[in-house]
Amino acid sequence: MFQRIWWVKHWITINQLYTVPTRGYASGTDAPGRCSPKVDARCYGGNSSTEPYIVAHHQLLAHAKVVDLYRTKYKFQKGKIGPVMITRWFLPFDETDPATVEAAERMNQFFHGWYMEPLTKGRYPDIMRQIVGSRLPKFTKDEAQLVAGSYDFLGLNYYSSQYAQPKHNTYPSEKHTAMMDAGVELTCTTLFPFKNGNSYYYPKGIYYVMDYFKTKYGNPLIYVTENGFSTPGTETSEQAIDDDKRTDYLCSHLCFLRKVIKEKGVNLKGYFAWALGDNYEFGKGFTVRYGLTYVNWDDLNDRMIKNSGKWYQRFINGTAKNHVKQDFLRSSLSSQSQKKSLADA
């Protein structure tokens, strides 16, 4: 492929590294549908406590091999190559409680550090090695050198944030999964701006994610490769087109991206809204709509640009006005202060 479409300057090796091992091998909700029998009887086999770590390990090795191939044989094409990470921001449910603050950072390590520590240092996070123990594969010296630094840029997908608080999980257990190893309970709130119709979101979370990657992983070159808002797939064309909530979502997240570039110097070079048009969403099918363009499921040639698409067009042209209805800049880190800030807004 590198040889056939040589003019491509940006290559992505694997999309959403975290998704396949967790949903495909821990919960079994995605292909290939493997998990421990007691986790979900519909799984045809698997071990939810071990296989996710094995799969993630080989994802990293496969990614690094492809990057090495590109750099060795196709460097003359002067392109860039990297993986795409799914990201979230984990807020301490109570920022005054040290154990809760620690749980939020531990979740960051299990969610982001699982891949980023090997990609930057050639080893898994200390906390993962401590908790997961022998279930966590080890890199050989050569593998560690191959994986570390195996990216020119990072694609970061961001949709939402969650509250984190400590939760004790016992291993071994027939219902234990790798996702429980962090010992963290993740929750959302029905409070706006977290919950808004069919989707929940927290725009300031993208600010924190960008700053975290800059501080923790050496200010890598970043592209936001997915960022979007879903509405029900059953919407009529009139309902779908009048999508001010999606416009609000995009505008507020872009505001915080601009803010984190100016305030923190994050090396962010591109942004892609998800998605150009309503589409078949992996895991959800046609039950949700993410598009800036409405697509009639019964006649795929019937398409209409939504209000959000028109706003985004003006934004790209530099003529859009600020559409944010909520003062997200007041948003704070905990559920308690979040409620107060929204009451004051």
Automatic annotation (TrEMBL):
Key word Calcium present: no
EC annotation from Swiss-Prot or TrEMBL: 3.2.1.147
Reaction(s) catalysed by this chain's protein: a thioglucoside + H2O = a sugar + a thiol
InterPro entries with a match to the protein in the record: GH, Glyco_hydro_1, Glyco_hydro_1_AS
SUPFAM superfamilies linked to this entry: (Trans)glycosidases
A GO MF term: thioglucosidase activity
A GO CC term assigned to this protein in UniProt: vacuole
Function as written in the Swiss-Prot or TrEMBL entry: Degradation of glucosinolates (glucose residue linked by a thioglucoside bound to an amino acid derivative) to glucose, sulfate and any of the products: thiocyanates, isothiocyanates, nitriles, epithionitriles or oxazolidine-2-thiones.
Description of how the protein assembles with itself and partners: Homodimer.
Family classification: Belongs to the glycosyl hydrolase 1 family.
Name listed for the protein in its UniProt record: thioglucosidase
Lineage: Eukaryota, Viridiplantae, Streptophyta, Embryophyta, Tracheophyta
